[in-house]
Design goal:
Blueprint: H1 2-62, H2 68-90, H3 97-102, H4 109-114, H5 120-143, H6 154-171, H7 196-238, H8 240-249, H9 252-299, H10 310-328, H11 335-357, H12 371-403, H13 408-417, H14 421-455, H15 464-487, H16 492-511, H17 517-533, H18 539-558, E1 563-569, E2 574-578, E3 581-592, E4 596-607, E5 624-626, E6 629-633, E7 640-643, E8 645-649, E9 652-662, E10 666-674, H19 678-700
Antiparallel strand pairs: 1-10, 2-3, 3-4, 4-5, 4-6, 6-7, 8-9, 9-10
Helix pairs in contact: 1-2, 1-6, 2-5, 5-6, 5-7, 7-9, 7-11, 7-12, 9-10, 9-19, 10-11, 10-14, 11-12, 14-15, 15-17, 16-17, 17-18, 18-19
Length: 707
C-alpha cells in the first residue's frame, strides 16, 4: 500500500509537471503571437504616419498648378494625411511627438481622436483639409453653372492652401517622431477639454472660418475681374483705328454691350455665391459659439456662458461681421459694404488664429505659444491686408464710375413698386456702420491690454465691465434700427400703437417685474422686434429674428432673478438656496474613472413647502437629486477640475458644484438657480435654423435677386 501511494503521488507530480510545461508553452506562444501582432500593428502605424507625412508634402507640390483636378486631388491627399494622424491617436502611437504630448492610452477612443485637433498642429491640418473640401464643393457648383466658369478663384485657393502646407512643415509639423524612446503614456488631452460638446466645437468654428475664405476668394476675383474689364475697354477706346472700323461696321456698341452684359452675368453669379458662403459661415459660427457657450456653462463652474475671453472674441468678431454681410449683400447698391465685409471676415479669422497660436494673448482656450508661429502668421496677414486694401481702393474707384449709374431705370421702377426699398437700404447702411463699430470695439478691447503693456509698459484691463458698458448701448441702437427698418411701410397708427405698448411694457417690467431700467428697456426692444415679425411672411427671417428675441429674453431674466448660496457643508447639513428652495448634502461618494478619481456630492433639492424651516426638512417626491463632481486626474496631480451638475426644470436650471474640503471641516458647496437660462440656448438654436432655411432657399434660387 505504501509503495502504491508513493507511485501514485509520483505519477501526479509528473502529470502536474507536464501540465505546467504545456501551460508555459501555450503562454509563451500566446505572448509571441501578441508581440507579433503588436509589432505588425506598430509597423503598420509607423508606415501609415510616414505615408501621411509624404502625402502632406505632395499636397504642397500639387498646389503649384491652377487645375481644378489637382486642387481636388489635394483634398484627397490632405484627407489621407489627416486620417493617418487620427489612426496614430486611436492606436496610441507614442512614437509621434504630437500623440506623446496630447494623448493617453487610457482615454476613451472618442477623446483620443478629438485630441488630434485639440492641439495646434492637428487643428491647422484640419483647417487645411476643410478648406480643400470646401474648394471642391465650390468648383462643383461652378461647373454646373455657365456663368460660374468665368470666375476662377483657383489661384486664391491654391495660395491659401500652399501657405497652410508650408506653415505646417515649417513650424507646426504634426508628424515629427521620437527616435530613441517609445513610452506607453506621457500626458493626455487637457481635462477641461474632455467633453463631448467641446470635442465637436473646434471643427465647427474652423468650418465657419474656412467658409469665409471661399467668400473672400470669390469677392477678390470679382473685384479684379471688374477692374480688368474696365482696363480692356479703355485700351480699346484708345485705339482710333479700331473705333473707326467698329463705327463703320456698327458693331462697337453691340460688342461692348454684350461684353458688359456677360460681365454683369458672371458678377451676379459671384454675388450669389458670396451670399451662399456667407450664410454657411454664419450658420457654422453660430452653432460653434452655441456649443462653446454651452461647454463654458456646464464645465467651468462659473455659472455664466460668456466671459469676453480673447478666443471667444476671436470667433465673435467674424460672426458679427458675417451678420452684417448677410444683410448688406441683399442690396445692389451696398456692394462696397459687401466687399469690405467679405475681406474683413477672412482677415479677422486669420487675426484670431494669430492671437491664439502666437501666444500674443493668454486664454483658457489657447494651446500654443511659439513666437515663430506668430511671426509666420503675421507676415501672411500683413501681405493679405495690403492686397485687400489695394483691391478695395480700385473697386471703390470702379464703383463710382460704373456701379452707381447702372440700371437707374430699373432701380427707379423698383422704387415706385416698393416705396420702402430705399428706406430699408438706408437703414441697412446705418446698421452696417454700427456692426463695424461693435467689431472695432471688441478688437480694441482684445488687443489693447497687450499693446499697452508692450509699448507703454502699463497694465490695462479690458474685462466684462468694459465690453458690457460699450457694446450694450451700441447693440440697443442696432436693434432699434432694425425695428424701424421693419416699420417703414406701416401706417402711423400701427407705429404709434407699438410705441405705446413698448412704453407700457417698460413701465410694467420696471415697477412690477422688478427689473433694472436697462433690462426693462432691452425687454421692450425685444418685444417690439417680436411684434414686427408677425407682419413678415418669410419663415427664415421670422426664425432668425425670433431666436434673437428669445436670446435677449434669456439674458434679461437670468441675471436679475438669479439666486445663489455658498457655504461649507458637512454631511446632513441643510440650507436654503432662496426662500422657496431647500437643499441637503446627503453624502460624499468616491468614484474612479479610467484617467481620474473624483469625489461626488449627493445633493437633494426640493421646494420649501409652506415656508417651513430648514430643520424641518423632509424629502418628498417634489424634489430631485443632483450629483456634482470634483475630479483629480492621474496625469496632472497638481490640479483638479469641476464637473457641474445641472438639473433643468422647464426654462430654469439648478446649477450645483462641489469644492475642496474634507470630512472634518466639510466641503464648499455652491448651488444656483438660474431662471429662463434655457431661452439663451433656444434662441441660438432657432436663429441657426433660420440661417439654414435661408441657405436652402438661396441654393434653390435659379439666379440672383436683389432687393
Amino acid at each position: 500500500m505504501a509503495s502504491q501511494t508513493i507511485l501514485s503521488s509520483s505519477t501526479k507530480k509528473k502529470e502536474k509537471r507536464i501540465e505546467d510545461t504545456e501551460l508555459l508553452r501555450l503562454k509563451r506562444q500566446q505572448t509571441w503571437h501578441f508581440s507579433l501582432k503588436t509589432k505588425i500593428k506598430k509597423n503598420s502605424t509607423i508606415m501609415l504616419i510616414e505615408t501621411g507625412h509624404y502625402f502632406l508634402a505632395f499636397s504642397a507640390f500639387l498646389l503649384f498648378t491652377q487645375s481644378s483636378f489637382f486642387l481636388a486631388l489635394t483634398a484627397v491627399t490632405l484627407l489621407y494625411s489627416l486620417f493617418s494622424l487620427f489612426v496614430s491617436y486611436a492606436c496610441s502611437d507614442f512614437s509621434v511627438i504630437n500623440v506623446f504630448i496630447n494623448s493617453n492610452h487610457q482615454l476613451p477612443v472618442f477623446y483620443k481622436i478629438s485630441g488630434a485637433w485639440s492641439n495646434h498642429e492637428g487643428s491647422m491640418l484640419l483647417w487645411a483639409w476643410i478648406l480643400s473640401f470646401f474648394c471642391i464643393l465650390f468648383l462643383i457648383r461652378s461647373r454646373l453653372s455657365a456663368q460660374g466658369i468665368h470666375i476662377r478663384p483657383q489661384l486664391v485657393f491654391s495660395c491659401i492652401l500652399f501657405y497652410f502646407c508650408i506653415f505646417l512643415f515649417a513650424t507646426s509639423n504634426p508628424y515629427l517622431r521620437l527616435l530613441l524612446i517609445s513610452p506607453e503614456a506621457m500626458a493626455e488631452l487637457n481635462p477641461v477639454l474632455q467633453d463631448p460638446i467641446l470635442a465637436i466645437h473646434p471643427p465647427l468654428i474652423y468650418a465657419g472660418y474656412v467658409a469665409s475664405a471661399i467668400g473672400f476668394a470669390v469677392c477678390l476675383c470679382i473685384c479684379i475681374k471688374s477692374y480688368k474689364t474696365e482696363n480692356n475697354f479703355r485700351s480699346l477706346y484708345k485705339r482710333k483705328d479700331h473705333i473707326q472700323a467698329a463705327l463703320k461696321a456698327g458693331s462697337l456698341f453691340a460688342v461692348s454691350g454684350s461684353t458688359l452684359s456677360m460681365n454683369r452675368a458672371y458678377q451676379d453669379w459671384g454675388w450669389k455665391e458670396i451670399r451662399i458662403w456667407t450664410l454657411i459661415c454664419w450658420c457654422f459660427l453660430t452653432i460653434g459659439i452655441l456649443l462653446g457657450s454651452w461647454w463654458a456653462y456646464h464645465e467651468l463652474g462659473w455659472g455664466g456662458w460668456w466671459f469676453w475671453d480673447p478666443v471667444e472674441n476671436a470667433s465673435f468678431m467674424p460672426w458679427v461681421l458675417s451678420t452684417g454681410l448677410a444683410h448688406s449683400i441683399l442690396y445692389a447698391r451696398l456692394r462696397l459694404w459687401t466687399v469690405f465685409f467679405s475681406f474683413a471676415i477672412f482677415l479677422l479669422s486669420l487675426l484670431g488664429t494669430f492671437f491664439v497660436r502666437s501666444g500674443f494673448l493668454a486664454s483658457v482656450h489657447s494651446f500654443a505659444s511659439d513666437s515663430s508661429r506668430g511671426l509666420f502668421f503675421l507676415i501672411f496677414l500683413t501681405g493679405l491686408v495690403i492686397l485687400c486694401a489695394f483691391v478695395f481702393y480700385q473697386f471703390c474707384s470702379y464703383s463710382k464710375r460704373h456701379l452707381e449709374g447702372e440700371n437707374k431705370e430699373t432701380i427707379a421702377q423698383a422704387a415706385q413698386q416698393k416705396r420702402g426699398v430705399n428706406k430699408t437700404e438706408s437703414f441697412t447702411r446705418i446698421q452696417s456702420l454700427f456692426v463695424l463699430i461693435v467689431c472695432t470695439v471688441v478688437l480694441c478691447g482684445t488687443a489693447a491690454p497687450v499693446l499697452f503693456s508692450l509699448i507703454f509698459g502699463r497694465d490695462v484691463s479690458a474685462g466684462a465691465p468694459f465690453f458690457n458698458g460699450t457694446i450694450l448701448p451700441i447693440s440697443g441702437a442696432l436693434l432699434i434700427l432694425s425695428i424701424f427698418a421693419q416699420l417703414n411701410s406701416r401706417s402711423f397708427f400701427n407705429i404709434l400703437f407699438l410705441l405705446f405698448l413698448s412704453v407700457l411694457n417698460t413701465v410694467l417690467a420696471y415697477l412690477i417685474g422688478g427689473l433694472p431700467i436697462t433690462e426693462s428697456l432691452f425687454f421692450s426692444i425685444a418685444f417690439l422686434l417680436f411684434c414686427t415679425l408677425l407682419w413678415k411672411s418669410r419663415t427664415n427671417m421670422q426664425l432668425a429674428h425670433g431666436g434673437l428675441c428669445a436670446f435677449i429674453a434669456g439674458i434679461i431674466f437670468s441675471n436679475p432673478y438669479k439666486s445663489q448660496a455658498t457655504q461649507m457643508s458637512q454631511i446632513g447639513d441643510i440650507f436654503c438656496i432662496d426662500k422657496n428652495t431647500l437643499l441637503i448634502l446627503r453624502g460624499i461618494d468616491q468614484l474612479y474613472g479610467p484617467t481620474f478619481q473624483s469625489i461626488c456630492a449627493n445633493l437633494f433639492v426640493q421646494p420649501n413647502q409652506l415656508s417651513s424651516k430648514a430643520n424641518d426638512f423632509v424629502e418628498n417626491n417634489c424634489g430631485f437629486p443632483i450629483f456634482p463632481e470634483k475630479r483629480f486626474y492621474y496625469s496632472q496631480t497638481d490640479s483638479s477640475t469641476t464637473k457641474v451638475a445641472v438639473q433643468t426644470n422647464g426654462f430654469s436650471d439648478v446649477y450645483a458644484l462641489i469644492g475642496s474640503g474634507n470630512i472634518e471641516t466639510g466641503w464648499y458647496t455652491t448651488v444656483m438657480k438660474l431662471p429662463f437660462i434655457a431661452c439663451i440656448w433656444i434662441g441660438f438654436f432657432v436663429s441657426s435654423l433660420g440661417g439654414f432655411f435661408s441657405l436652402s432657399k438661396q441654393l434653390k434660387m435659379p439666379r440672383l435677386f436683389w432687393v
